Amino acid sequence: MSASGEAPVEPPKRQRLEAEEVHVAVDDSGEVKLDNKTFRDIAKKYRKVDGLGKKGVKRMAKSLKQRRDLRHKSMIQEADEAQLVATEIFARNDDAGGIEMDDGVRKSYNVSQKELASQVDIGTQRKLFDFHLPGGPFTVNTSTNGRYMVVGSRGGQFTVLDRHSMNPLCSEQLDEPILDTTFLHDHTLFAAAQRKYTYIYDSATGAEVHCLKDHLNSTHLEFLPRHYLLVSGSETGEIRYRDVSTGQHVAKIVTRQGPIQSMRQNPANAVMVTGHARGHVCMWTPNIKEPALKMLAHFGQVTALDVTSDGKYLVTCGSDSKWKVYDLRKPSEELQRCSFSGRAPTSMDISFGDADLAFGFGSSVSVFRGSDVFRSGKAPSTYLKNSYNGQQVSSVRFVPYEDLLLVGTSAGFNSMLVPGAGYTQFDSYVANPYETTKQRRETQVRSLLEKLQPDMIALDANFIGRVQAPKKKVTKPLSDSEESEAEEESFAAKHKMRGKSKAGKRQQRMNKMRGEAERKRRSRRAGESKVDVEEKSLESARAEHGALARFYVNKSD
């Protein structure tokens, strides 16, 4: 309060110009359309602003309009980012996870399957199963997206299961043993290698669709999805390729290595890798009849093998109770060598993302981490173990996008929990475990349109699109006999008149030409020999005197 009793007058505050209070029109080019009435209103309201004329009002209105638009866009962007983060679209997790022990004393391979099953969610618990059936041993395989599995037994029974619902699509009992099974382009068709022929069945009804009589005595089956090729390996050492989209027989290769003990494909370049009884590992393409690569991996039978999804590493198992890792970029050297205590692995598999390796030997299954095997120089340690008392493990196969391992034994088949084995980021364009019937048909049509030809299979998949330089013609020096024959052909005497073409005259001319050619040849050889002598003397001088060799050569001459 002042002395006169009146309240002091506060200085007027500078009013803030807000974008919402300015009602002006801005065209597409950014020019402000301001009429006289609007100018008077703004000037009257903001008369405290010094030096604010008509141009100043235009500049301020334009900047505020741009500021308002920018604020609106930023609000929309923040809302979109919040929604994307909430739905975890951008939440990429490259770490597949695994088992971490808290106490540091207990090892991960001592954790039993019952303990793991009690710690996982209900959805994963429903996918665990254990079937005890007669007629073993059983072989297991999965579809590309991992949702369906096919089981075949030596007793002649095959079954196709939907693992999400655990409902069987079909189940039939045959009179012949089933040695191997594989799905084709999707789960609707699968192939089975039986005693004599190879058959293709419908997964929905179990009916026989085709009988491939030229695929005789097949023991191993593989399907190349990018080429639509069904590949079979027989006990007679033959590899056959068949295009299932056209039914055409593509190639037949006789390996001359004896029965095929194991066979897998390289997912990166579609090259078939086979293991044989003498310890050799061969790689085959349908374009050539000889192996593209042959290496001695073991001193005994190669019982199992597999290649990583990127095609860089090869893992082989032998009857010498050892398993080895090779870098295919330099296959002459071993990357790892490990052994089991007196037991030879009978089957093995590498997970889709190369996260884990599973080995089946005897009545046990051992799992190793891929990071320890492929990316470290130390000996890998066992990650998980599981024993099947009284049963022999015949086949193991990882489920592509889940932490599950399918195991076929002599008394049935079951599933095993392997934390961290599933591939965390799946591409629905390649394989979708939750695809509908319409999506499956669209994928089939797209894959047929993008089908590759068999002649595009090679060890180096990047050769397509390269321009090969023309080969230079290498001319070999002629031998003495070839030179004499060429000279005799050039010594054809010309026909002359006035008695000069008589036999004696023609022989004289030919002898004269031969003599001249012989003198030229001798002089040329003498020059070549002189050059050789000079080069040899220079080399000897270099070996003795080094950089001063040329002075000693000239001095000796």
TrEMBL record:
Span list, region Disordered: 1-20, 470-545
GO cellular component: 90S preribosome; small-subunit processome
Chief subcellular location: nucleus
Entry keyword Repeat: yes
InterPro entries xrefs: BING4_C_dom (IPR012952), WD40/YVTN_repeat-like_dom_sf (IPR015943), WD40_repeat_dom_sf (IPR036322), WD40_rpt (IPR001680), WDR46/Utp7 (IPR040315)
Annotated compartments: Nucleus, Nucleolus
Pfam families with a match to the protein in the record: BING4CT, WD40
Biased composition (Basic residues): 493-512
Each WD repeat, start to end: 295-336
GO process annotations (BP): maturation of SSU-rRNA from tricistronic rRNA transcript (SSU-rRNA, 5.8S rRNA, LSU-rRNA)
Domain BING4 C-terminal: 382-461
Transmembrane region(s): none
PROSITE patterns: WD_REPEATS_2
Record's compositionally biased regions (Acidic residues): 480-490
Compositionally biased residues, Basic and acidic residues: 11-20, 513-545
Keyword terms: Nucleus, Repeat, rRNA processing, WD repeat
PANTHER family according to UniProt: WD REPEAT-CONTAINING PROTEIN 46, WD-REPEAT PROTEIN BING4
Descriptive protein name: BING4 C-terminal domain-containing protein
Lineage, opening ranks: Eukaryota, Sar, Alveolata, Perkinsozoa, Perkinsea
